[in-house]
Amino acid sequence: MLSRRILLGSIAAPVVVLAAVSLAWACVPQGSLTLGPTTGPAGSQVAASGSGFDAGAAVEIRWESRTGQVLATTTGPSFNNVPITIPATATTGIHYVSAAMVGEHAEHSATAASFEVTGSAPPGPAPPNPAPPSKADPHGHDPSPRAKAIKRCKRKYSAKRGKTAAKKRRLAKKRKACMKKAKRLSDDEHDASTFSFKSLPLFG
What we know:
Number of strands: 8
Shape: rod-shaped
Structural class: alpha+beta
């Protein structure tokens, strides 16, 4: 008789524990979730509304599943028009947005709503067109006063202008003196605004 009571007691104890756990789970509400709109391209802005969660409980809104990308975090018992963004990488087709309380009751409070991705994310705004390069510099760089002066020296006193050997020697001498003066120029903004080729005596 005693062994029978012990056996019955050992069976009854787990049943009581399971019943208590089931009762605790039964007390966890399952939330509800709605989306607006429910269709759109990847990257769409959507408003999520939900109810049925514990008051003050943190609620996570995730992409695809309870372990997916977090789209927003809010609090229970209800929320309205929480802005979420459908991932830009989402593929065309039916997907799900889930909402669940954070913590041990997450699984039992979880709910989901479907969203149909109708296409890829629209392209972003086009970058502004770069300014066309100046005629003086096809690469788009503004030559410094020093570079301008050196270039002018080379052009003004080019050996090609000399028809005789003596003329070419005089041009080479002037070109050398001109470039020597030009290389002393600074590249700062002040020189860029005040420099004049006439400041070089050989530029007569």
